[in-house]
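Here is one chain, start to finish.
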Amino acid sequence: MDTPIDTKEYKELLEAVRFIYGYDFTEYAELSVKRRITHFMEGRGIETVDKLGKILLKDENVFEEFVQHLSVTVTEMFRDPSFYKSVREIIHKRLATYPVIKVWLAGCATGQEVYSIAIVLKEEGLLERSIIYATDINQQSLQTAKQGIYALDGMKAYTQNYLLAGGDGEFSRYYMARHNSALFDRSLTQNMVFSPHNLASDKSFNEFQLIICRNVIMYFNQRLQDKVIGLLYESLCPFGFLGLGDKESLLLSDKRELFEETDRKEKIYRKIK
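Its structure:
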C-alpha cells in the first residue's frame, strides 16, 4: 500500500468484522493493528481497505487467515525464564494448599507457555491435581497448541530457557523427536482444556488459583486493558495469583488497589480484596 490506512475506513472495517463475525478488534492498539492490516493486504495484493472488507465478509477462509495475522502468536517455551522460576520458587507453595488447582493461560497463542507451566507443575508435584485451561481468540493457534508439536530446531533455545527457569533434569524427556518436529509428552496434556475465548468480548467462565496473561494486554488500548484486568480479577479466587508480561503492569488500572505485588520484577500479583 502506498498510502496509510484512513482512520475512518479502519474503524468501519473493524465494525463490520465485529458485526458479521463477532470478533472485536476495535479497542486493540490502533497503530499495531493498522500495521498488521497493511502487511496482510500487501501480502495478498489487495489495494484498498474497501476491497479487503468485501473479501473478508464474503470469504470465511480469508477471514480466518486475517484473524491469524491480527492475533499475536509470537511465543516460546519458558519465555522470560525468571518468571517461571518465580512461579516455581514462590507461587507453587501457595498453590499446593489447594485440593484442585485451576490455571488459566489467557491468550495462549500456539501453546508453548501452556506446556511450560505444565512442566513446572509436574516437577513440583502439582500437575495431577491441576486443570489447565488454555484459551485464545485464534482457532488455528489453538489447534497447534492442542497438538503440542513444535519445530525441533527450537529445542536448543527452549532447553536453555528451561534450565534458567530452574528446570529439574533433562528437558528432552518431555518430548519425542520425530523427523524435524518435537512431539510433547501426552502426559502433560491429560488435564488441559483448549478453548476459544475472546478477552475483548467474552465473560469469565471459571474461578482460578493462577491466571497467566502475558504479553497480551500490551496490544490493547487503555479502556480495553481496564476491561480485561477486570475480567481477570473476577476470574481469580480470593488470594489467587495473576502473572503479566514484563512490559505490562497494573499501575494504571483501577483495580491496582485490589492486588498486592508478589514479585514486582516478574509482574506477579496476588488478589487481596
